[in-house]
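Handout, tutorial session.
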Amino acid sequence: MESIRQYFKRTDKIYLLLCIFSSTMAVVALASWAAKQGNGFATDEITGAITGIGDYRRALVQAAAAGLGIVIALLLSCIDYRSLVKVWPVHVALTWGLVLPTLFIRNVAIGPLTIGFNAGDTDNYSWYKLGGFTFQPTELAKISFILTFAMHLNNVRSRINEPKELVKLLLHLAVPILIIHIQGDDGTAIIYAIIGCCMMFAAGLSWKYIIGAISAAAVAVAAAFAFFSDKIGKGYQWYRILAVIDPENSTGWAPNEATWKNIIYQQQRGEIAIGSGGISGNGLFSGRYYSVPNAHNDFILSWLGNAIGFVGLCIVLGALLALVIKTFATGARSEDLLGSYICTGIGGALMAQIAVNVGMNLRVLPVIGVTLPFYSAGGSSVLMLYICVGLVLSVYMHNTKSLFG
């Protein structure tokens, strides 16, 4: 008991409480979705008798994953993050060894295991399926990437703005992005890019490179839209971008009305659901609800807006924002640059996923399959998130410098 007391004396209790609050709210939200918009308990069509847990399974999986994740985070926080970086060949081989087969193997079943499983209706075959459970190895590889990129930045240090070192860093960043793009998961590829940019910015990347990169990107995007619009991404990706710019199809971007309605339907319903919640919401388990495709996943924010309203969403997003700030603050108080870079990478990942997901739900960004941390249904993604939490807590506990000291 004394060791437990000493642990909680040393750890970041507020950070842990914010995580627990977010996971609890996620389980409640998924349970309410199952009760009102999903199938709740599975029932016999003839007798009406309950035959299974139905869509409540998502809430139970989320709760179990969060419980297991918290235990993993607590154990991981006791391990010095520096030792985890030193064994980088192990986690690189393990994580990317799981990712690479999905580049070539698609929907191949080996007993109960399916490699290259397509979890949606897109060209994304980046999943493994074992029985009734799915796992996306790029989420685990994201953690390995943050650790190795932090080590790379730590080794480079003040030489980051030397062209030779910068090219090596950009290559380190470009390889995983290219692999994930080939998989068909451009949403995750964008998150990787943002993580890398955040970490290089924290490492002291010169503003001349930053401004140059932004300018080049702006010119490239303008040229792509002007001359190569029909070749940007896959057809549905291009349509999703245009649906945000011109939701009424006034320019005639959609080849037919069916395509237009199919592309805008999810975001349109999500907007209506958020707006219908008003200030205080319709209630989690009662009231009027609007059906939104995949509301349990990428559009869980629209469900929350419907159920708990503007005030509730402010609390939910406020807690997530506090987590992002606390993650960056832990990096700022780190005694070494390695800890700072790790926290910057994790904070950047959280910030990017929250911003993109909220933008998708508010129809200011195209739908690119980015989940809302803690809230979107998925046991494996929750476990990966809590591994990140454990790393942040490890940086917090293995440093003694105060933020303002």
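The second record follows below. Compare its token runs with those of the first.
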Amino acid sequence: MALTVVSGSGHTWRLTEPIGTGSEGIVYGVDDARPLVAKLVPAPPDPAAYRRRIARLVRQRREPRAVRLVSTTPTRVAWPLAGVRAGGPGADGVDGYVMADMRHAHQPFAHLLTPEARARLLPDATWATALAASLSLARLVADLHVEGYVVGDLKPDNLWVDALGRVGIADVDSWQFTDGGEVFPGRMGSPGHTAPERIGAPAGTAPDRASDEFVLAVLVHQLLMCGLHPFAGHPASGGGYLSYDDNVLHRRCRLLDRTSVILPRSAPPVDLLPRRLAALFRAAFGGVRPAASAWAEALAAEADPARLRTCRRNPLHVHTAERPWCPWCDLAERGADGYPAPRPRQEHALPDSRAPHDAKGPQEPQGAGDPSNTTDATDATGRKGKAG
């Protein structure tokens, strides 16, 4: 028997296959002419409060602050369209909501973070695409903050991206917001994407804009550094690797202290980052966190085509103009090409491996980047491995 859900107005939808699960709910396809999905939350901590939260979000969709967020093409926010219930009234019923299906115009955000997924699913993506996605994400978070929303559980699993780097977000029901003087607190957090002040905090500790800004910086770092988490690495002190969160709490971050962690030579070098962005990362992880709008401004400047260079050997090797030689070719020589060529090159290779790779810029000695590239280390999860 097909599962059906009904809205408060009596509209019925037939659900199809389950397409995803999260910490609280299950997402199903919806049999409808429009691209829709439904999220059902079987056991929220307070079912009545959850229904009230969804009802307020559905109403807010008609308010100017939400209209400014959802009236874009493609859709940036999978906003609740209608609260629904499965299984009828009473304790046996399951609450949820219907929303836009982000798969209609996007792919999971994680597809942009690893070379394997990019090569298969976003074959034309380059570092310029990662910059575009970083900019789109920063603008989205900035716009949410302006309108009074705090994401709280900002993470790759809640994000979507298209081939042009345009980012969208789902799981609106976990956001923190105010409606009519009532505060609906953020309820969620995820390991590896939680600000230090929220790690280990008592249950129910509310997020704020600053906690979103910390995680935004983590996600931008992952986008620009080929998926590398900024707090990845084995503790250089000799202690065992526990988790990203443990490294966050102990400020083990290559950008803050190059001697605090050990990374494999296959890790992208620090000088892959433009100096302006590296300074923002250091502030985000060890100082006064830049606002999402500050990230958007800096990323827009770095995404200017005049600030980018394309490798002559591989058209997918794009990097900042501040980098005088191609970092992706350096990594490819270590067996870790972040943006492998879409097809084998037909022309003869340059006779000297140290010959310039780029259309512009002077040549410097190869390997003059981050010292961690020459260190035997562990992989990004902390497991022991042989470098390079």
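Points raised in discussion: The first strand starts at residue 4 and ends at 7.
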